[in-house]
Design a protein that fits this description.
The complex is a heterodimer. By secondary structure, chain A is an alpha+beta fold. Chain A has four helices and 13 strands. Chain B has one domain: Porin (Beta Barrel), CATH 2.40.160. Classes of the chains: A alpha+beta, B mainly beta.
């Protein structure tokens, strides 16, 4: 009897160590994807079924878990536009209008398969809880559930590369269970400063059959940013922050 | 062995084909072409064609086309060029936006050129900006209307996203982030002087016209308080707010009080009296995004400085009487003067409803947006409905087609406009 109790105690003590800590994996994925505060350039390419393309270039800065700014550098029709995200609040500033207007995470300021939540993405751990984590060969599969109803996708299925702790594929679902889009990460690149992450993200959606959107990263690096730049009053001046 | 050797011979071709296939998905991104430059220039050129179906019975047709050849319709072409640029040096930036247009129709050739904005900004740190020059401020949260737009020219609800001409001013911007529930506070003081040379259309000259706006982001709600001192125009103050109630539903509103506002009012005989009193304007709006990606915007606007139904009826009676008599006559001179003044302001009534529905990627075509917007005078029930098609699928080119349909009986806001219908098509090229 004594040996049974001892064995049970040992098993109980050992189980937390053996269990997969999905939340910890997700935190590492967040930090491996981007430093907590950074600046980077991104190109968004929309590809239509006939192969024609439309391209956008954005300069993005992020601070902490929930502050993101994206400045449009191209095309000329969108140049100078700025989108700001503070937690679940999002605004769009257009130079011709001269004031920010509130936008929602499900809209797309570019009109592409990428919506505002994709373009102004904050840390996954800020928006999602890990409900389930399992090993699948050389990958982890994390099942994530949105912390609030304010988040663009209610559930995510994230396949994570075990070795690099970087996402390979993410399926995004609505609360109804409908698959909204799939994100495919590729082309792991060394950006310098200890940042090694995918430089390419492709997305397709059953809601946009035949259309594809691609996001490319360049110049990703750590940055020291002041809180004042993540405010509505600063949006007309964001361009001046670029070095 | 022979077949293997033959296969080896084809390897280079196979590799080339594989490489070509890979090339199709090999996206490039050369970031060097987007480096910040000390000087930059961009803008757009636009060609616009309009066809007006004129409303020969409308009071504003009679006033606007008095002394001109009478017509049933009018075609107009307008060419527009708008340039925006920046020059940077250290903490200083000089930015400008200039606008020029030329229009031709059977009655007139018009040319306009204006400096919309030209200001020097100093930014010693992110939380502090000091500016001087011509600047187009945009205060208020309304989409089509603004009650607290105290130091700006009114927007055109038909095209609320168009750039507008600013006023010559000195202004500052001070930003703090206290943290906690009060995420941001910003203070924007402004001086808008009116002299014989500058800002003449703001009001009487000889006043510095101080104003300010305080912005706060408090518990995810945008809040502004705005104030302008008595000077070239009566003193005024007000507030606005905006908040997302859900991820797809936003609410906004504005409220403004204008003290001792003077409103010229005419009776049917052309006798003008000036009514002085406090005026309150406000608006309440919603923006809603459906699961199908259609956006609805609705705004109710109460114009405290507008004319009541009885007041505009008297004006229309005056116009009718002026044109019923042999011309010229004294009533006509008064009607023409009033028709160029406050009665001619767009949305000069008291109660309006604005509604807009827009759907991107319409009819299965990406970059094709269909929209419909309507403006209703809630007092006389006259309205304007405008369906719209916009295509942005060509690089740097925007095409837009609109049909403006105005409906209203005699002595109503939209029934007395100069035109009853308008078709508008433009091509705008951005560079």
């Amino acid at each position: 009897m004594r040996s049974v109790l001892l064995l049970s105690s040992l098993l109980l003590l050992a189980s937390p160590a053996l269990a997969l800590d999905g939340q910890q994996i997700l935190q590492k994925v967040d930090r491996n994807l981007e430093p907590e505060s950074y600046e980077s350039y991104r190109k968004l390419i929309d590809i239509q079924p006939d192969g024609s393309r439309k391209e956008y270039v954005l300069w993005t800065v992020k601070k902490g878990g929930d502050k993101v700014l994206a400045l449009f550098l191209a095309p000329p029709a969108d140049k100078g536009r700025v989108t700001l995200r503070l937690g679940e609040n999002m605004w769009l500033y257009m130079p011709s209008v001269g004031k920010p207007i509130r936008i929602t995470s499900l809209q797309s300021v570019t009109g592409s398969v990428f919506n505002n939540a994709d373009i102004l993405r904050i840390d996954y751990t800020a928006e999602y809880d890990v409900q389930k984590a399992e090993e699948q060969g050389d990958q982890y599969l994390l099942e994530l559930k949105a912390k609030t109803g304010e988040v663009a996708y209610d559930r995510l299925k994230m396949w994570v590369d075990k070795r690099h702790l970087l996402p390979l594929k993410i399926e995004c679902y609505a609360a109804s269970g409908l698959l909204l889009k799939t994100l495919h990460f590729s082309n792991i690149k060394d950006f310098g400063g200890g940042i090694k992450r995918p430089a390419q993200l492709e997305t397709d959606s059953p809601l946009y059959k035949g259309y594809k959107s691609v996001m490319l990263w360049s110049g990703l690096k750590k940055a020291t940013l002041q809180d004042e730049i993540f405010t509505l009053n600063y949006l007309p001046r964001v361009e001046e922050l670029r070095k | 062995m022979k077949p293997l050797r033959r296969r080896r011979r084809y390897w280079p071709l196979v590799l080339l084909l594989v490489a070509a296939g890979a090339q199709a998905d090999n996206y490039s991104f050369d970031v060097s072409q987007f480096e910040k430059k000390p000087f930059e220039l961009n803008g757009y050129a636009e060609l616009k064609a309009e066809n007006f179906a004129l409303n020969r019975d409308g009071a504003f047709y009679k006033l606007n086309y008095f002394g001109k050849p009478q017509r049933q319709s009018l075609d107009r072409m307008t060419e527009t060029l708008e340039l925006a640029g920046k020059v940077r040096q250290s903490i200083a930036t000089l930015d400008f936006r200039v606008h020029a247009d030329a229009s031709q129709d059977r009655l007139a050739d018009d040319r306009n050129s204006r400096i919309y904005e030209a200001a020097l900004s100093l930014r010693p740190k992110p939380g502090l900006t000091l500016e001087a020059g011509k600047r187009a401020l945009s205060w208020g949260k309304g989409y089509a209307f603004n009650a607290i737009g105290f130091v700006q020219r009114p927007k055109d609800p038909n095209d609320p996203q168009l750039a507008r001409e600013g006023y010559v001013m000195a202004d500052g911007d001070f930003i703090w982030n206290p943290g906690g529930a009060l995420q941001t506070v910003a203070f924007t003081p402004v001086l808008v002087p009116v002299t014989s040379d500058v800002n003449g259309d703001l009001g009487a000259s000889g006043h510095p016209n101080p104003a300010f706006k305080i912005y706060a982001l408090y518990r995810d709600t945008d809040l502004d308080f705005a104030w302008q001192a008595k000077g070239s125009r009566p003193a005024r103050y007000g507030f606005d707010f905006a908040r997302n109630l859900k991820t797809n539903l936003e609410i906004h509103g504005e409220w403004a009080r204008i003290l001792q506002f003077a409103k010229p009012v005419t009776d049917a005989s052309g006798r003008v009296t000036t009514e002085v009193g406090n005026a309150t304007s406000y608006l309440l709006g919603l923006r809603y995004l459906t699961q199908g990606n259609t956006t609805y915007i609705a705004e109710y606007y109460r114009n405290g400085t507008g004319y009541s139904e009885a007041e505009v009826d008297s004006f229309y009676e005056l116009v009718d009487a002026a044109f019923a008599r042999p011309q010229p006559n004294p009533l006509l001179a008064r009607a023409l003067a009033l028709g160029r003044g406050s009665y001619a302001r767009p949305f000069s009534g008291e109660n309006y409803l604005y509604f807009r529905a827009q759907h991107p990627d319409a009819l299965g075509v990406v970059y094709l947006q269909t929209a419909l917007f309507a403006m209703v005078n809630l007092d006389d029930h006259s309205f304007q409905v405008t369906p719209e098609l916009q295509y942005t699928g060509f690089n740097n080119l925007e095409l837009r087609l609109r049909l403006y349909l105005l409906h209203g009986g005699s002595s109503t806001d939209f029934g007395e406009k100069a035109n009853s219908r308008k078709v508008e098509l433009y091509a705008r090229y951005y560079f």
